[in-house]
Write a structure and sequence with these properties.
By secondary structure, this protein is an alpha+beta fold. About 30% of the residues lie in helices and about 35% in strands. The chain is built from six helices and eight strands.
Length: about 170
């Protein structure tokens, strides 16, 4: 499912869903609150537009139960390119951890390609100068309760779109 280096990580999944359904699952908070870390995305889908993620109430409660208080905005960035429903590029900065918040903005590219009866979704995360974030999104912190990174999020997105259920169901 993935290949990774310290500075660039690439993940691809094949999903039996339309390109528009995948696009919506990435860009609409009513979808993103249902899978992965359950963050609520807010995109201004214009070049230079803001990208922010806030924690859903279950995410916030789980973090507080583990002793971590979350800021209001947990991820921020800027939209670089939006070509619905084929491509989305934005910068990304994790604000939940002071060490990661101090790292530079990174760059995420989603590419959705229609194939016969399915689509491929490729996520490329350019992580130059952000080793702490690279470790997190690679899934290295999973045993400490930080989830499985991009591979886990994309797997749950695929499961949700194909079955209507998430891993906890």
């Amino acid at each position: 499912m993935s290949t990774s280096t310290e500075t660039t990580q690439v993940y691809r999944v094949y999903i039996k869903a339309s390109a528009q359904a995948i696009w919506d699952a990435i860009t609409k908070p009513e979808w993103t609150e249902r899978y992965g870390y359950t963050g609520l995305v807010d995109y201004d889908l214009r070049p230079g537009g803001a990208y922010q993620v806030t924690a859903s109430e279950p995410f916030r409660k789980e973090s507080e139960a583990r002793g971590y208080e979350l800021p209001d905005v947990i991820i921020d960035g800027e939209v670089v390119e939006a070509d619905p429903p084929r491509k989305l590029v934005h910068t990304f900065r994790m604000l939940m951890d002071p060490g990661m918040a101090a790292e530079p903005f990174t760059r995420i590219t989603y590419e959705i390609k229609e194939l016969d009866h399915m689509c491929s979704l490729t996520l490329t995360h350019e992580l130059e100068g952000a080793p702490k974030l690279a470790s997190l999104v690679r899934g290295d912190q999973e045993e400490y309760g930080a989830g499985g990174g991009h591979a886990w999020v994309l797997s749950e997105l695929k499961t949700l779109l194909e079955t209507g259920k998430v891993f906890a169901d």
